[in-house]
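seq:
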Amino acid sequence: MTSTVKVNTVTTESGSTLTLGESGKTVTLASGASQSGFGRTGTVDWQTGDVKTSTFTATSGEGYFVNTTGGAVTVNLPAGVAGAIVGLKDYAGTWDSNAVTLNPNGSDKIGGGADTDPTLENKGGALLLVFVDSTQGWLTTAESVTESPTGIQTFVTATGGTITTSGNDKIHTFTGPGTFTVSQIATCASHNIVSHVVLAGGGSGGVPDGGGGGGAGGFREVKNPATPYTASPLDGYPSAPNRVTVTTQAYPITVGAGGAQNGGTGPAGNPGNPSVFSTITSAGGGPGSRFRTSSDPEAAGGSGGGATGRRGPGCAPTCGGAGNTPPVSPPQGNPGGHANTPSPSSSNDGGGGGGGATASGTGSDYNNGAAGGAGATTNITASPVVYGGGGGGGSQAGTGGAAGPGGGGTGFSAGSGGSTGTANTGGGGGGGGSSGTAGQAGGSGIVVIRYKFQ
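struct:
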């Protein structure tokens, strides 16, 4: 016998088969109505919008992603009713370090044990728990261990400076003091080693006569292979002391100012100021040297300042300031150039060039200032930029030295002033000419941090 009843839906009975609803229709129970016989089939509704990070009480029929990155989590199981089901999954692959503890309700059992509180400590673990009866309580009906890459992979998340993007990398550029704040680290430990350039301020040029060029600020770089760009020849990644592995914290950033202009009242320039990121400190560039008969220890720095032209006999070829002071590996800079003036009473003095990140300052000849040393080229900001050029030496009666590539200033020529180091390149300032002319200021430094963010 076949019968049909229509009350906003269709019920059809044919032999042992009862069909409820029409094809393409939705069956909804009326408010207050009860149902039986529509039990679950062993699955749960996963709560994807509610990742659990602290103690919580589960609801039967729901599955939860549990994130123990910040610490262990306790799951309070619902009251044991036959057929109750709960699902759990390791969200971040951290159950092996911070476990999940199951806490049954009242006198309910887990696996037949008396008030047992087991822990879940398999990395990438997942399981389904079903309450059977008062004898066995909660039993595991399905269990697995699935780790990344099918699990969730996290990357470094940070703020601070001017942020740009290149492919899968974020780039934070600091042209002045600031804070690099890391709010999340990467699940892949090697991705937490951030690429960076830390460049100090350049030294100013010296006076008189034929002042030495200022040395470039110390240049230090590390390129993590996970961030694909062309680094400078000074990449220090293979050496562990050069690396910075970030954690979730704030990192103060110091960007060194260039050495101030020497107004011609003293023989030496002014040193640049250091730049700092975490454990990495780059030394300020050395100033243009005082006139001496030997090298000037006060002209040492990240790169050394060039020697002044008005010097005592016997100075060449070592009277420029020392570079890579204090010493690091790879070297953060090079020495300043010597002065080749034949006597301290000469009126045709030419100063030595300031040292650069990749080359020493040039030695001067009798009349003319010498060129500053070359800087280092890196693509850390997604385009090639040269940093850390030395300042050119000044000349009292001839031609000033050329600026070292990478922001160095030109030296003073007879009848025309020299130039300052370029801001945020760490370039050394150009040397002055005769008494009363200025040794030019050095350029400020920069800090750049780059990491994989996706």
